[in-house]
Design brief:
Blueprint (H helix, E strand, L loop, with lengths): L8 E4 L3 H13 L3 E5 L10 E4 L4 H6 L3 H7 L1 E2 L2 E6 L11 H7 L4 E4 H9 L7 E3 L3 E7 L2 E6 L4 E4 L1 E4 L6 H12 L13 E9 L17 E6 L5 E7 L5 E8 L2 H14 L7 H11 L3 E3 L5 E3 H6 L7 E6 L7 E2 L2 E3 L4 H16 L6 H36 L4 H4 L6 H8 L4
Parallel strand pairs: 1-2, 1-11, 2-7, 5-13, 11-20
Antiparallel strand pairs: 3-6, 4-6, 8-9, 9-10, 12-15, 12-18, 13-14, 14-15, 16-17, 19-20
Helix pairs in contact: 1-10, 10-11, 11-13
One 2-acetamido-2-deoxy-beta-D-glucopyranose (NAG) binds next to helix 11.
Length: 414
């Protein structure tokens, strides 16, 4: 295949999905450009778990050893009540089955940097929001916020849960009456999540950071709709996340709040601080006979690296239209999608409209069942957690271990 026959790919969003696609296209010599609305990337987030099905791609990218060097082996997960009593033993077979155990924990900011380094800087256009996408003269066109257009063959929406690419694409389908009803509904929020990573901690005060392996600890609130989760990292830090599980009513209020605050799913400092204030007395197991509170972690985390994110649960049916295609949401899902799409684009014989449609259909056929299966499994898992635990928590946590959490940090089904 000559260079001219390869499609020019315009990727919207330099999140993990968009960058992973860029890194793979870079390796295979397919031309691409990434557009990212943020001027720079902030090292936000907690940790991710990478399992056996995702690890081979890092070998392919030549960064497997680097990845293992920043990661920490994760052999087990522990769950506690708020009293820090370990939970009654649960049947974790389903977790193991669909997480494939998730072997390595890596801090999200460090992982992000590693993937970003695989893409030459001039191929990521920071500070450019994509406002619209159109198709003209058999070309795909992105319309940028600086009133400039970029022309290519294919547009990939890797721009997150509130994807502008998806919204513009769905508008075009809705006008033609071709958008399924399920895709016309809003994203339901299932929880709000506070995430961050501490600086390097003193093992005297936080014995957990001295453990040779990673522990994924979860604590479930007593009579409060919260759960909180920690991972000790290879860098001697703790990655943490605090989830507030939303009811229908609080979900609606959170949604309204979000649209008042900003145009995206990240909230400003103030709501993050309020949630810190609300949760800082929540207790934490720290190993070595020590306990602490979430406040200890907040005090050890640079303020600007604490963020609050809305988590939504939905799998859209429509993934592509004309020359536009979407990458799934969820860190691990998005990366698997990127791998599938990169392989198909690389092998594409021509770049005609009909060939593009064929490739997108193939992509959907390959990925949709896998995404649905992991979504179904995590729903199933939520049910098991609910029925396995007696007491008051169940009343609050309708989705005990939220679908999102497992899809984000745990899923490694291909
Ligand atoms: C602040 C934050 C912290 C997180 N922390 C964790 C964590 O600790 N652990 C975990 O497992 N998961 C975490 N997640 C969730 C998970 O990483 C994301 O869901 C996952 O990265 C999905 O990847 P994505 O590439 O599809 O979307 P995103 O990561 O949401 O990336 C989308 C990118 O597109 C950009 N963008 C959006 N709209 C436009 C536009 N119109 N034009 C140009 N660019 C646009 C955004 O700025 C963003 O950089 C976090 C998410 C966020 C936002
Ligand atoms: C990772 O997990 C898989 C499946 O659970 C297991 O077969 C494999 O041995 C583990 N790898 C390491 C390095 O522990
Ligand atoms: C995007 O472009 C289409 C086609 O030109 C147009 O109909 C639509 O109004 C535009 N949408 C926005 C939000 O600009
Ligand atoms: C808009 O941004 C693009 C991408 O960086 C750049 O090539 C173009 O020159 C910019 N246009 C204007 C008018 O600033
Ligand atoms: C939301 O986006 C619109 C259009 O892009 C912009 O005019 C408005 O100022 C934004 N609002 C906030 C709060 O950022
Ligand atoms: C959080 O608590 C601190 C200390 O009590 C206070 O100064 C701050 O205003 C509070 N922030 C919010 C958003 O509630
Ligand atoms: C997921 O669940 C839905 C409805 O419960 C079912 O129709 C579908 O076949 C399931 N899909 C997979 C891949 O498990």
């Amino acid at each position: 295949m000559s260079k001219e026959d390869k499609p020019t790919v315009l990727i919207v969003g330099a999140g993990l999905g968009g960058l992973m696609l860029g890194a793979l296209l870079e390796k295979s010599g397919v031309p691409y450009t990434i557009f990212e609305r943020s001027a720079a990337v902030k090292p936000l987030g907690s940790a991710m778990v990478l399992g056996p099905t995702l690890l081979p791609v890092f070998e392919q990218l030549g960064i497997y050893d680097e990845l293992l060097a920043i990661g920490k082996y994760l052999p087990q997960t522990l769950t506690y009540k708020e009293s820090l009593q370990p939970m009654p033993p649960l049947d974790l077979t389903p977790v193991e089955e669909f997480t494939g155990y998730g072997n390595y924990t890596v801090s999200r900011p460090m992982f992000y940097d590693l993937i970003l380094k695989q893409v030459p800087p001039h191929k990521v256009q920071f500070g450019h929001r994509v406002l619209n996408i159109t198709e003209e003269d058999n070309k795909a066109v992105v319309h940028l916020s600086n009133n400039t257009i970029f022309v290519g063959d294919i547009i990939v929406g890797a721009d997150g849960a509130y994807s502008a690419v998806r919204q513009r694409m769905y508008e075009q389908l809705r006008v033609k009456g071709e958008l399924p009803k399920a895709d016309q509904e809003d994203l339901p929020f299932s929880c709000t999540c506070l995430v961050g990573q501490t600086g390097v901690l003193d093992p005297e005060k936080f014995p957990i950071v001295a453990l040779p392996k990673c522990l994924f600890n979860s604590v479930h609130g007593q009579e409060k709709p919260f759960s909180w989760h920690t991972f000790n990292t290879a860098q001697g830090t703790i990655c943490w996340m605090v989830l507030e599980h939303l009811s229908k009513k609080s979900s609606k209020a959170a949604m309204e709040q979000r649209f008042r605050d900003t145009n995206n799913s990240e909230w400003g400092d103030n709501p993050a601080q309020a949630m810190c204030n609300e949760t800082r007395t929540f207790p934490l197991p720290l190993e070595g006979g020590k306990t602490g509170t979430l406040g200890d972690l907040y005090d050890a985390t640079p303020k600007e690296y604490i963020s609050k994110v809305m988590l939504e649960e939905k799998v859209f049916k429509t993934w592509h239209h004309r020359r536009f295609v979407l990458l799934g949401d969820g860190a691990v899902t998005a990366m698997h999608d990127a791998i599938a799409l990169a392989n198909l684009l690389y092998a594409m014989p021509t770049k005609t409209s009909s060939e593009i449609t064929t490739v997108f259909e193939e992509y959907h056929k390959e990925r949709y069942p896998a995404v649905m299966e992991s979504y179904n499994n995590s729903k199933q898992l939520a049910k098991i957690f609910d029925t396995g635990i007696e007491g008051t928590i169940v009343n609050y946590l309708t989705t005990h271990m939220p679908t999102w959490l497992w899809r984000q940090v745990g899923t490694s089904s291909p």
